[in-house]
């Protein structure tokens, strides 16, 4: 006897509007951020990597930790690092303790690149996103996405444990 197919719980018009509004706005925001960083010859991924490195002690971090904190796959990070090394913004060093891991290290040129791009990037975030919300909207949005993020993190951890 074939297994009974479970019908999905379809989105209501209100739910669908919320979802589609989020998707469209997030894609447009990402594209706008890419365009705004282009004069600095940085992509959003490059900028995010440089942010994480700029905030790390001595502006260096293990590649595996950088991939996790920047939410980028290890293979994608490796590709971005090659591009960024060529630009002179970062370098990699083998970990002297275990020899297996590598550190990503921000160079002075990388520091100068993010310092130069940051004011334009923040202005873009403000004008395209923050300025269109009240303080209450910002609090609500932060609370909502913290909840979604925590649930997603929990689900991914459960998937990793099942492997």
Write up this protein.
The protein has 163 residues and is mainly α. The chain has a domain at 19-117: Winged helix-like DNA-binding domain superfamily/Winged helix DNA-binding domain (Arc Repressor Mutant, subunit A, Orthogonal Bundle), CATH 1.10.10.10. It is 66% helix and 8% strand. It has six helices and three strands, in the order ααβααββαα. It has helices at residues 13-37, 44-55, 63-69, 74-87, 108-128, 135-162; strands at 60-62, 90-94, 102-106. A three-stranded antiparallel sheet has the order 1-3-2. A hairpin with a 7-residue loop joins β2 (90-94) and β3 (102-106). The longest helix has 28 residues, at 135-162. The model has no long low-confidence stretch (mean pLDDT 92).
User: What is the end-to-end distance?
Assistant: 30 Å
Q: In CATH's first tier, which class of the domain at 19-117 applies?
A: Mainly Alpha
For the record, the CATH architecture of the domain at 19-117 stands as: Orthogonal Bundle
Radius of gyration (Å): 20 Å
The helix tally amounts to: 6
Q: Can you count the beta strands?
A: 3
Global mean pLDDT: 92
Tell me about the largest β-sheet. Answer: 3 strands, antiparallel
Strands of the widest sheet, in order across it, are 1-3-2
Question: Proportion of β residues?
Answer: 5-15%
Poorly predicted runs are none
- For the record, what is the CATH homologous superfamily label of the domain at 19-117? Winged helix-like DNA-binding domain superfamily/Winged helix DNA-binding domain
Strand/helix succession = HHEHHEEHH
Report helical residue fraction: 55-70%
Global shape: globular
Q: What do we call the CATH topology of the domain at 19-117?
A: Arc Repressor Mutant, subunit A
Structure classification: mainly alpha
């Amino acid at each position: 006897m074939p297994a009974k197919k479970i019908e999905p719980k379809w989105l209501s018009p209100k739910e669908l509007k919320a979802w589609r509004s989020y998707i469209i706005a997030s894609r447009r925001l990402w594209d706008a951020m890419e365009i705004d960083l282009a004069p600095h010859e940085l992509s959003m991924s490059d900028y995010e990597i440089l942010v994480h490195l700029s905030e790390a002690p001595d502006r260096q971090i293990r590649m595996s930790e950088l991939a996790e904190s920047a939410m980028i796959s290890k293979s994608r990070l490796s590709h971005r690092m090659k591009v960024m090394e060529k630009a002179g913004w970062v370098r990699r060093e083998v970990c002297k303790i275990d020899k297996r891991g590598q550190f990503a290290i921000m160079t002075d040129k990388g520091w100068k690149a993010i310092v130069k791009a940051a004011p334009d990037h923040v202005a873009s975030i403000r004008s395209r996103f923050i300025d269109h919300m009240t303080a209450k909207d910002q609090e609500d949005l932060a609370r909502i996405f913290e909840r979604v993020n925590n649930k997603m993190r929990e689900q991914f951890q459960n998937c990793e444990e099942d492997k």
